[in-house]
Every structure is written in C-alpha cells, then in structure tokens.
Design a protein that fits this description.
Largest sheet: 4 strands, antiparallel
Number of strands: 4
Radius of gyration: 33 Å
Order of helices and strands: EHEEEHH
Strand order of the largest sheet: 2-1-4-3
Helix content: 55-70%
Mean pLDDT: 76
Distance between the termini: 45 Å
Shape: rod-shaped
Low-confidence stretches: 9-26
Structural class: alpha+beta
C-alpha cells in the first residue's frame, strides 16, 4: 500500500492549505519505507510504501516508488508555479489599467486647466454670460465621464 502525506509550507498554510493524507490502508509495520516527495530541493512531504507481507522493499521497487514521489513533487511544484504566474499576470494587468487610467485623467485635467484659464480670461475681459456659460459647459462635459470612471468601485 502507498500513503502520501504532504505538509503545506508557511505560504500554503497561510493560504488555507493544511496537511493532506491520501492513502490505502495504514502504513505501519515491517517493510515500511518513507520516500521524500519534492523537486528542485523543495521537500513537500513523504510517501510511505508498505509491503503487505512485511518484507523489505526490493531495490527496483524502492527506485520505482522514489521516481513516483519525484514525479508527484514535480507536478505539485509546477502547479504552485502556475498559480504564482497567474497572480503575477493579474497584478501586471491591474498595473497596466491603473497606468492607462492615470494617463487619461492627467490628459483630461490638463485640458480642463486650459479651459479654466480661458474661462478666467473671458470673465476678466467682461464677456457676456452666454460666452462664459458655453466655456463652462465645455469644461464640465468631459469631466463627468472621468469622474464616473474614477469613482466606480471594482466588482468583488
């Protein structure tokens, strides 16, 4: 029988992963041998191999089980790496969106600053109310979608 026991690392434990045991029968008695499950120097747990007739594992059997333990370790580490890559891609996408939003806001604010300067000049020149209102409307029109976009909350 084989029994696989994986201990979560500190990062895995913080993410809610606990020790998991997958097995057939209990692994006790003579003929029991433990194999490290891991890859690239990272030990993730143990694989316990038991022979039902209480004899020691043969060399070929031990090598085969260690190869299985190594494959399990490689698969687990590849899965962990894939999860980390997905998180990095998500963060990169969020940074790109934030940069684009910042650039859009900066451009809109620069335009509004120019329009306000124009509005102030019209007021100082004593222009009629209709001209001042028209420029004020030009300032406010592009501002509304920018404010709406900036104040939207992301979906959970």
């Amino acid at each position: 029988s084989l029994r696989l026991s994986l201990e979560g690392d500190q990062q895995g434990m913080a993410a809610g992963r606990r020790q998991s045991t997958i097995g057939i029968d209990a692994c006790t008695g003579v003929g029991q041998q433990l194999f490290a499950v891991g890859s690239q120097g990272h030990i993730l747990g143990t694989l316990c191999a038991c022979i039902g007739d209480e004899r020691a594992l043969r060399q070929g059997e031990a090598e085969l089980i260690q190869a299985l333990a190594d494959l399990i370790g490689s698969a687990l580490l590849l899965n962990r790496q894939r999860e980390q890559d997905n998180q990095l891609l998500l963060l990169d996408e969020r940074n790109t969106i934030a940069r684009e939003l910042h650039d859009s806001l900066a451009q809109s604010l620069s335009f509004m600053k120019l329009q306000i300067a124009r509005l102030q000049a019209l007021i100082l020149q004593g222009k009629d109310c209709h001209a001042v209102e028209a420029v004020a409307e030009e300032v406010m029109t592009p501002l509304v979608p920018v404010v709406v976009t900036a104040t939207k909350r992301p979906l959970p």
